[in-house]
Write a structure and sequence with these properties.
162 residues; alpha/beta; Rossmann fold; five-stranded parallel sheet; 5 strands; globular
Length: 162
């Protein structure tokens, strides 16, 4: 522990604008608190498998879609590495595969993460949304405190100032 509440911060990336905001906030927080920053992008192979089982995708489409998802993951990881480096913050970045909430919770436990940073949780419009929202599941099951970053124009200005 570095004398501050958080010495190890994890930001979850999913390619959304909300996760971009969470990334910037996590970088600023890691810099200010001198915490280690981790970033995880989870390729949702569980959902992909369900699409194949539902006959929405055939095997060939699954392989192509998985390759696209992996490219997206690599692009988002490179992006956070670049913006963190621009603020002199080191980031340990990982691309995982599986069910996002399970992979993130496992990562938190394995790496002793003190704080999980998430992009804004989408409005729940139905019971199904509530059951399938990965961010919501992480929020409810995380073994460490969770910080939800709301969309804000002020965040962009703060990030540029540092």
């Amino acid at each position: 522990m570095n004398g501050l509440p958080y010495s190890s911060i994890l930001v979850y990336l999913d390619g959304s604008e909300g996760s971009m905001n969470a990334s910037m906030y996590a970088i600023l927080l890691a810099k200010a608190s001198k915490a280690r920053l981790h970033a995880v992008y989870v390729v949702n192979t569980k959902a992909l498998g369900e699409l194949v089982r539902s006959h929405i995708f055939v095997d060939q489409e699954q392989a192509e879609y998985l390759a696209d998802l992996q490219k997206d993951a690599a692009r988002h990881i490179r992006h956070i590495e670049r913006i963190a480096a621009s603020k002199d913050v080191e980031v340990t970045a990982s691309v995982l595969s599986g069910s996002p909430h399970k992979e993130v919770i496992s990562y938190i436990k394995q790496h002793g993460i003190d704080l999980l940073v998430l992009g804004s949780v989408n409005a729940i419009r139905s019971r199904r949304d509530e059951l399938t929202s990965e961010n919501d599941r992480m929020l409810r099951t995380s073994p460490c405190p969770v910080l939800v970053v709301r969309d804000s124009d002020d965040l962009w200005a703060q990030f540029e100032e540092v």
